[in-house]
Amino acid sequence: MTNKEIILKFINAYNSLDVETMLQCLHCEIKFKNISNGEANVSIKGINQFEELARQSLSLFSQREQKIIKYSEEADKINIEIEYNAVLANDFPNGMKAGDKLQLTGKSEYIIKDGLIYSIIDES
After folding, report:
1. pLDDT-above-70 percentage for the chain
2. How many domains is the chain partitioned into structurally?
3. What is the pTM of this model?
């Protein structure tokens, strides 16, 4: 599988709320960081922590989609720009309500190691 195919498989699984397929794309030592408004709000390491986070996030959205708008690859490092759309499944503490739509743009950096995603840094 090419690096691009791995990333596409992962994003398609994410969009389909398919945690099992997402996990198949990840290195056992996966590192994940989410940065929002310049601040890291999530940072985890290891497949078990990633699975726990992925399963928890299933209850947050009734639907979600990452759409790649730009893709670039340099050796084993992939950078993508995305449009993110989601519908909230529950009320959020920030005042957003179930059924509200969330729309963001962002970028993600992926590092591939041993044919699997070793690192993901999401920024929005």
Report:
1. 100
2. 1
3. 0.93
